Amino acid sequence: MIVLLDTSPLLWTLADPDRLSAEAREAIATGSATLSVVSYWEVVIKTRKGLLAIPDPVGWWTRAVALFQGRVLPIRATHVTALAALPDLHRDPFDRMLIAQATAEGWPLVAKDEQIRAYPVRTIW
Predict the structure, then answer these.
(1) pLDDT tens for residues 5-38?
(2) Nearest 5°: phi and psi at 113?
(3) Where are the beta strands (DSSP E) in 43-117?
(4) 3-state secondary structure of 35
């Protein structure tokens, strides 16, 4: 099963895997966990704003991609179309695009965030 990782579970997988639920750890370990370029974008933006303490976001992304064997989902037009159809439940643009990607691809999203889980998207946590 292919699963898409929200940015927080991706960060935890790399730095503090004990923060993941057992179900999330299993999905990541046994499935084809895929990263989104949206997470890279989010990490770069939040690092530059001082919201994340990642000294080298480019190196961090390179390590993440290697760990997940290069499975990276780009942003496609179908994802933007799915984004346009999402209800306005919250304003985080990164979460909304990850939800849209998971919806368009038909993949579950590994996410702890309750606001994400309020959307009509399959989640694992």
Answers:
(1) 999 999 999 999 999 999 999 999 987 899 999 9
(2) -55, 120
(3) 72-73, 109-110
(4) strand
